[in-house]
Amino acid sequence: TCHQRHQFNPAVARHSEQCKACHWGKDHRDWEAYDISIHGVVYQVNKWNPTEFDFSKTLSDADYVGPTCQYCHMRGGHHNVQRLSTVYTSMGMSNADRGAPLWKEKRDTWASVCDDCHSPRFARENLQAMDEACKDAGLQYTETFKVAQNLMLAGMDEPMPKDLAPDWSGQHIWSLKIGAYHDGPE
After folding, report:
1. Known InterPro entries for this protein (predicted)?
2. Nearest to 25 by CA among 174, 183, 185
3. What is the rounded average pLDDT of the residues 23-36?
């Protein structure tokens, strides 16, 4: 849990490892994406240095050398976790910017998180680049499924072979999105 069993210490909950207990693994690679991103590397290298990460301070008073999971996702130190909610879905772009006020509100909130350390231009351009990477991956993913479907319709592929492994493809596209929005190298 966020505060560890029998220890309800906010300073403990501010360490990114606290998120790892639930947010890692094949089905949602949040921890892995953060850990190998530049932000995660800065955290791993400096987390034991109290001048770089003073976890006794509230998140709103923190001046970390790099962001923790909590710094970005629990802005202001509250329990209302900030989710991206503006990414493209696997097979389309249902959450893309189509002028919806909610999309703009969420994007502005995320840009303001990035603005704590980066310029507003850097934040907006990088968020847009991440959107485009996810959009492109989603379109390529859709095309791949069309090829497979056409092969089956043409009788060139068995629709449900007995030795077929579980289809983890949906998890792969989700992992890609998580990696993109954590600005990781994957």
Report:
1. Multihaem_cyt_sf
2. 174
3. 84
